[in-house]
Design goal:
single chain, alpha/beta, Quinone Oxidoreductase, Chain A, domain 1, Rossmann fold, 2 domains, 15 strands, globular
Length: about 325
């Protein structure tokens, strides 16, 4: 394509702004694979990048979009050839390297993952980084020996992207899921995904105690801060918490007590720089463990031009589940 549409974030003395522009291949950054983007999605980090609420974008101009799926147009990478279906999550794309909110992307082929058998490009973006992060979190719990017999698993931010996928995955795998949300009107939605109990996030919002009553064998937390501290204090002996987000904040007001008195493990989940082998395991599992009907139920399809309007909404916690954009 000689010219194509892209969302460009620019910055000058008046501040940062995002606008759709027509650009060409020469405007893209170096890379050994060029992809015709067919689908992308929105994550919390994309909302931060577009609104400028946090310094996610570290070079300008920038095309945001930390996820995309599409078809290889040209390749100098030994693993890919024209026509291959691929997807991408992370690696600084949309932050330091131009990302997926464009009809064409040029990137390092080492960052790509072949589209797993059994998933369409649209489904892969319905999962996106949020769902891939949820799967990495499930894998962390499993590797720590947390099974359905261990006890219930808490999911915080359950109505969001990570939380929705985590709830559906855990339920499919036989776990009893306790879903925490600030939107109790979403209880029917969360129970349709497989949650057996829904609790108000306010029950995790108080000043954290070092130890509290044991309530769950593990958790997937995308919130951080005092919520995570309270989650840790209520985790059963030998339990594990997969920490994968910081929607509430980066601080962690807790003590060593849960770790040395209850043997609790806090497992950090990094989706951005995870090696290819781990990514392939996660995406293979997603292709088999993510119920298609539940994925469809949590997904809304939007026009890509709506991305700038939706960015503030995802930061405000107003978006339920996942949003998918098809690139014309």
């Amino acid at each position: 394509m000689q010219h194509f549409q892209a969302l460009l974030i620019t910055k000058d003395d008046s501040g940062q702004k995002a606008a759709w522009s027509e650009i060409g291949p020469a405007d893209l950054m170096p890379g050994n694979v060029t992809v015709r983007v067919s689908h992308t999605t929105m994550n919390y980090k994309d909302g931060l990048a577009i609104t400028g609420k946090a310094p996610v974008v570290r070079r300008f101009p920038m095309i945001p979009g930390i996820d995309f799926a599409g078809t290889v147009l040209s390749s100098e990478h030994p693993r890919y050839k024209p026509g291959d279906a691929v997807l991408l999550n992370g690696w600084g794309v949309g932050e330091t390297h131009m990302g997926g909110y464009a009809q064409v992307a040029r990137i390092n082929g080492d960052w790509l993952v072949p589209l797993p058998a059994g998933l369409t490009a649209a489904q892969s973006m319905a999962i996106g980084t949020a769902g891939y992060t949820a799967m990495l979190s499930v894998l962390a719990l499993e590797s720590h020996g947390i099974t359905p017999a261990s006890g219930p698993i808490l999911v915080t931010g359950a109505a969001g992207g990570v939380g929705s996928v985590a709830t559906a995955l855990l339920a499919k795998l036989g776990y009893r899921v306790i879903a925490s949300t600030g939107r109790l009107n979403e209880e029917p939605y969360l129970k349709s995904l497989g949650a057996t109990e829904v609790i108000d996030r306010s029950s995790l919002a108080g000043t954290p105690r070092a130890l509290n009553k044991e309530r769950w064998a593990g958790a997937i937390d995308s919130v951080g801060s005092s919520t995570l501290a309270n989650v840790i204090s209520m985790t059963s002996y030998g339990g594990c918490i997969a920490a994968c987000g910081l929607a509430q904040g980066m601080d962690l007001p807790t003590s060593v007590a849960p770790f040395i008195l209850r043997g609790v493990t806090l497992a950090g989940i990094d989706s951005v720089m995870a090696p290819l082998a781990k990514r392939q395991v996660a995406w293979t599992r997603l292709a088999t463990d993510m119920p298609p009907a539940k994925l469809a139920a949590m997904t809304v399809n939007e026009d890509i031009k709506a991305v700038t309007t939706l960015a503030p909404d995802i930061l405000a916690g107003k978006i339920r589940g996942r949003v998918v954009f098809a690139l014309p």
